[in-house]
Design a protein that fits this description.
ABC-type transporter activity; transport; elongated; about 0% strand; transmembrane helix; ABC2_TM; about 250 residues; mainly alpha; 12 helices
Length: about 250
């Protein structure tokens, strides 16, 4: 059996599971929509000072990154349930590639993220967001790249901890500084110098700035270059970690 076929079989099974119980998809989509309608209007006086015509032109790219990070980070919880039910053991006795077991799940997560991103961008346009079409397409692709990285890391963490009680606080501990220091909600230029210096060491800060810059259609600016580079590096590292974890699980 070829590698693409193995990935497709895993993806098809995972997609069917999601369609039977779409709660995670709905919950993952409701949070950024609530931010969009309840938090977005509060940004208007702040964003006007930055010279941006519409607050959603600033806010929607941040919400895309939030979808890619926070939605994908929860992907591993379902894997713990599968491990507990013996599904992972059943997959390991098959000749399927261990990489395919991970990639098939990642494709499911990326399809889910893509649909959510389209809904978010559509709502942004309805609320007055402006941006380059090519830039928005690239921003969505960059979001999917970082989403794939977070989903792979989540799956690796799930197989490492094998416990929701351990995994949940670890994710919360990581998510809080990422949310506050990546500039998803507010521009980091509003903070003191020391906070900006700390955020400069946060890869997700550059990814967020990269997605925002891409919406303007300017692909040559530093945030675009650094954001794309960081997203690619994180994806490669997370894919390697996830694959090696699946291989270690081989009895």
């Amino acid at each position: 059996m070829t590698f693409p076929r193995e990935c497709f079989i895993v993806f098809r099974r995972q997609l069917r599971m999601n369609l039977r119980n779409p709660a995670w998809v709905i919950i993952g989509m409701l949070q950024p929509i609530m931010y969009l309608f309840l938090f977005g209007p509060l940004l208007k006086p702040i964003i006007q000072e930055l010279g941006v015509d519409n607050e959603y032109t600033f806010f929607v790219p941040g919400m895309l990154v939030q979808l890619g990070i926070f939605g994908a980070f929860f992907a591993g919880f379902s894997l713990i349930g599968e491990w507990r039910e013996g599904v992972i053991e059943a997959e390991r006795v098959t000749p399927a590639s261990r990489t395919a077991l991970l990639v098939g799940r990642l494709i499911r997560d990326l399809v889910q993220l893509f649909v959510q991103a389209l809904i978010l961008v559509g709502l942004g346009y309805a609320l007055g967001m402006t941006g380059s079409v090519k830039g928005i397409v690239f921003g969505v692709l960059l979001t999917m790249l970082v989403g794939g990285a977070c989903a792979a890391a989540s799956n690796a963490l799930a197989l490492t901890t094998k416990s929701e009680d351990v995994m949940a606080p670890v994710i919360n501990m990581v998510m809080m500084p990422v949310l506050l220091l990546s500039g998803i909600l507010l521009p980091m230029t509003m903070g003191p110098k020391w906070l900006q210096s700390v955020s400069d060491w946060m890869p997700f800060r550059w990814i967020t700035d990269g997605v925002r810059t891409s919406f303007s259609g300017d692909f040559a600016r530093d945030p675009m270059v650094y954001g794309t580079a960081w997203a690619a590096v994180l994806f490669v590292l997370a894919l390697w970690w996830g694959t090696s974890t699946f291989r270690k699980e081989n009895a």
